[in-house]
């Protein structure tokens, strides 16, 4: 157990509580959903790094003394501290030191391998809620994981059927605009579609997040899944726009501030009708979009509590709703006539895409991960050597002063 000054009250005062979504874990011995293979989630490559065994209590005391003397803690020390965690209790206690390091002069030097190690330790010791908490509070803790780490987290939630928790991780991927890796796209689409399949009651903030995630990841896929996802994404964002105004859409989100998200949704349908031979739109998604338009028509016809949030530009966009509804009916009829609608649900389309592509993506990811770990280890050894040389130099200087 760490012998240190655990200032839990500091965290309670400085951090706003963040809701986590890892309470619905199912530990029964039933078949569990898991997208990534055992080779992808295996820790062998990570565990093969050169060991640097440390006493956790001594590291904690060293950091306490360093902070008391107003000196910065090095990235090597906090990295060793994370690597040395060996229980859930120690993971919980480590939160304090992550926070202290993030708010120290060396805050920018939390190494990528230390971030990766933190999330691996959380998963290893059953502290996925702590992983999500530090991820949601990334500015306070400095936790900005890479794509491979994001994949491990999303898969872990999906494996236990906690699709809401998986979507919470996808939200962070979306906010960091990290949908470049195909495997991350597939895992994110899987989490989003599985959560939507449970028919959750979403707040307008959750609809905005869900819409932005679907739209941004959908834009990366030029197939039926991608176009269905971006259609629903645009529609969900358009719902927020027409009910609460365009400012509510792009505030603290990686979205453009130009009005007309429902128009962009219809443009997706038009593109499928006009140009794309092999692409079909999910009937389930089309039904969802139709329901959104119907809900907006009710809001538009009556007096809403959110009307005061709309400026003149927002009011003009709301006036286009009848046009959007007529256009939607026309495009849906064209899709049916041209056999461009797919009876499969979005979840089924994503599952089929996963079976077709994820295995090949894993091979490329694992090769890159091995290279990344080697690079991290080489850089870490350079830092250790520099640390050793600095200590030797300081010792010689002290001995020289004592001899004078």
From TrEMBL:
Molecular function per GO: rRNA binding; tRNA binding
Pfam families associated with the record: MRP-S27
One example of a Gene Ontology biological process annotation: regulation of translation
Taxonomy, superkingdom: Eukaryota
UniProt KW keywords: Coiled coil, Cytoplasm, Mitochondrion, Repeat, Ribonucleoprotein, Ribosomal protein, RNA-binding, rRNA-binding, Transit peptide, Translation regulation, tRNA-binding
Coiled-coil residue windows: 366-393
Chain ranges passing through the membrane: none
InterPro entries, alphabetized: mS27/PTCD2 (IPR034913), Ribosomal_mS27 (IPR019266), TPR-like_helical_dom_sf (IPR011990)
GO cellular component annotations of the record: mitochondrial inner membrane; mitochondrial small ribosomal subunit
Subcellular location: Cytoplasm; Mitochondrion
Family to which this protein belongs: Belongs to the mitochondrion-specific ribosomal protein mS27 family.
PANTHER family the record matches: MITOCHONDRIAL 28S RIBOSOMAL PROTEIN S27, SMALL RIBOSOMAL SUBUNIT PROTEIN MS27
Record's protein name: Small ribosomal subunit protein mS27
Organism: Anabarilius grahami
